[in-house]
Amino acid sequence: MSFTAEVKDELSRVEAPTAEAELAQLSALIRVCGTLSFRGSGRYSVRIATETGAVARTVIKLTHKIFDLDTSLTVRRSVLHKTRNYLIEMPEQDELAADLVRLGILVPGRGLATGVPAALLSTRPAREAFVRGAFMAGGFIADPRGDFHLEIAVTGEDFARGLVELVGSFGVSARLNRRRGAFAIYLKSYDDVIALLRAMGAGRMARVVEVARAKKSVKNDVNRRVNAEMANQARSTGAAAAQLDLIDRAEREVGLASLPPALRAFCQARRAHPELSLAALGEELDPPASKSAMYHRVLRLEELVAEAEKNQGR
After folding, report:
1. May I ask which residue range the UniProt record assigns to the signal sequence (predicted)?
2. From the CB of residue 31, how many other CB atoms can be counted at a distance below 10 Å?
3. How far apart are CA 89 and CA 34, in angstroms?
């Protein structure tokens, strides 16, 4: 089961606390994944198509609980994708038009509503239920162990902007992306996704995301430390190789025996310990020398070698 399917399965088991919240959730489910057909004289029919069993179960459960409507369910299996497709149909019937008005999908005398049904969303439970229904119908959430994000795909700019405002009422920051004539409410932040999951009622999956984030943070921290250590080692190795070359030139041009004692001690230590960093090399001396002191010895040796090579006409 995909991570999205796990979240939707948990959401399908959330019981809306009020009749208004149930109505709001069903409204969002039908609005996002339903198709409304019109045949004149107020005759409507509705088709709801989904590949998620949890969505189909929730639509049928709420429809039968709230309304006295005839519904049919057809389950088809896609041979190509090896998935089930669920088709719920509400055929033409006398009560359907009035029920669609109650759901905020139809506006009397004006036809199909364009924005979110504000009259249904006066309470927080109703707003939570509406967003829960919208996510169940058109939502996707990536596995938190990878490139994590959450999105809800919808049609209609007014509806999309209204949904962004509802999400924002939970203290969640979402942005709106246009995609081939449709819209996606998009969340990237772990904190925002966790907050939205909890608001919708997916507390268990929110905890799964928190654990995944903690593990990912530890893994990233370890990787950063390892990469930094490897970079430091590479720099130290390169510096040591350059210092060994400098010592060879000093021996050839000046002679190590003629060097000042501090520089001679540095040359002997570097040849004995080519793998050490400059700071660690200083600790091998007697008495020990600081990293700064060792660096100044390197600079002094470079000056002596450069002067000797200049005198030799090189």
Report:
1. none
2. 26
3. 9
Report pLDDT for 57. Answer: 92
Q: Give the span between the Cα atoms of 208 and 103, in whole angstroms.
A: 33
Instruction: Dig out the tokens for 296 from the structure.
Output: 């100044």
Three-state secondary-structure class, residue 218: helix
Identify the H or E element spanning 14. none
Give the Cα separation of 175 and 160 in Å (integer): 10
Residue 104 structure tokens = 């905020």
pTM for the structure as a whole: 0.71
- The pLDDT assigned to 80 comes to 67
pLDDT tens sequence across 103-132? 999 988 788 888 999 999 999 999 999 999
Question: Which candidate, 172, 169, 174, places its Cα nearest to that of 194?
Answer: 172
In angstroms, what CA-CA distances link 186 with 14, 158, 159, 164?
23, 16, 14, 9
27 contact partners, CB below 8 Å, separation of at least 6? 103, 104, 105, 117, 120, 130, 133
Secondary structure (3-state) at 63: helix
The reported pLDDT for the residue numbered 203 is 93
Half-sphere exposure at residue 250, Cβ-oriented, CA atoms within 13 angstroms: 25
Answer yes or no: are the C-beta atoms of 29 and 136 closer than 8 Å: yes
